[in-house]
């Protein structure tokens, strides 16, 4: 059973700042850290480290960062044969992190938006019923919508993390079997500020299950039978950058390995809790062994 991740890959530049920037403010960073990233790449690596067989479909530039990404994907035992190399610069993200671990991220998406439905069709032609497709919000709207719908029609299980939210998801949600959102994304999509009410509204839109991440409070899993809160282990956060991607990747990996949604949610909460105790992105992502040894709350 294979987990297919169709999303972006980028270079991350992380800056530690005394507080998150205010409008018109110039800040001095204590340091700059460079790493590979992008939600698609992050979630694929998190899933692979959690034990899933992963195939990443993405696009990078014909520059040195693009080559670094391809080399790193191979080193993580991810099938990266479908990472397209196109003329131009690889996408990048600027991440600002304050002393509490909270962050702001701004990303480019030229390469991500270059992916077309023809690329999605080539991906789908390699899948089998029962495989799982994981997508995010970095690709263009039409490709995201058509790919999820075509995947569902082919018998694939689908997981959507609609972040960043850059377009309307109203007619896309029914094709997403499981939607993973944080509290801000839940409120944006549902119009409800309460996570439980937001999840209920998303279910009414046709989603089979909603997972709402709650930061240090864990996560809320909501399906037709009701909601279940999964508490997070009491670990101290130092850097939350990438935590949401860890959660999504590990959740999809757990599903691909036969866990039910409750087990997958518990596994993901532990993984994200471990990740925020470490600085940086990719090197903070835990392995399956570390997740298994992490004590539940």
User: Strand-and-helix sequence, N→C?
Assistant: EEEHEHEEEHEHEEHHEEEHHH
> What is the CATH top level name?
Alpha Beta
Total strands: the figure is: 13
Question: What fraction of the residues are assigned to beta strands by DSSP?
Answer: 15-25%
In terms of structural class, how would the helical and strand content be classed?
alpha/beta
| Multimerization status | single chain
Instruction: Record the strand order, biggest sheet.
Output: 5-4-1-8-9-10-11-12-13
CATH homologous superfamily descriptor:
Ribokinase
From the 3D structure, determine the CATH topology. UDP-N-acetylmuramoyl-L-alanine:D-glutamate ligase
- Any idea how many domains? 1
**Helix content class:** 25-40%
* Low-pLDDT sequence parts: none
Averaging pLDDT over every residue, what do you get? Answer: 93
Question: Kindly, what is the distance between the CA atoms of the first and last residues, rounded to a whole number of angstroms?
Answer: 30 Å
Major pleated sheet: 9 strands, mixed
Overall shape? globular
Number of helical runs? 9
Radius of gyration: 18 Å
């Amino acid at each position: 059973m294979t987990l297919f991740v169709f999303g972006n890959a980028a270079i991350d530049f992380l800056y530690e700042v005394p507080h998150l920037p205010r409008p018109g403010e110039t800040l001095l960073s204590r340091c700059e850290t460079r790493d590979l990233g992008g939600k698609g790449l992050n979630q694929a690596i998190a899933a692979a480290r959690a034990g899933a067989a992963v195939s990443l479909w993405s696009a990078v530039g014909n520059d040195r960062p693009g080559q670094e990404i391809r080399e790193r994907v191979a080193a993580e035992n991810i099938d990266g044969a479908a990472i397209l190399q196109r003329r131009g610069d690889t996408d990048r993200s600027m991440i600002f992190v304050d002393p509490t671990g909270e962050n702001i991220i701004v990303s480019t998406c030229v390469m991500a938006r270059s992916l077309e439905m023809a690329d999605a069709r080539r991906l789908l032609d390699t899948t089998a019923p029962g495989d799982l497709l994981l997508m995010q919000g970095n690709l263009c709207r039409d490709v995201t919508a058509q790919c999820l719908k075509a995947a569902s029609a082919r018998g694939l299980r689908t997981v959507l993390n609609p972040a960043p939210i850059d377009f309307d998801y109203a007619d896309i949600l029914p094709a997403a079997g499981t939607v993973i959102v944080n509290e801000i994304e839940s409120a944006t999509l549902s119009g409800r500020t309460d996570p439980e009410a937001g999840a209920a509204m998303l279910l009414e839109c046709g989603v089979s299950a909603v997972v709402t991440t709650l930061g240090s409070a864990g996560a809320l899993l909501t399906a037709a039978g009701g909601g279940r809160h999964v508490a997070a282990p009491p670990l101290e956060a130092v850097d939350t950058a990438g935590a949401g991607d860890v959660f999504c990747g590990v959740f999809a990996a757990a599903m691909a390995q036969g866990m039910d949604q409750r087990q997958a949610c518990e596994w993901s909460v532990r993984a994200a809790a471990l990740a925020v105790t470490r600085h940086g992105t990719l090197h903070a992502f835990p392995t399956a062994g570390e997740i298994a040894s992490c004590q539940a709350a």
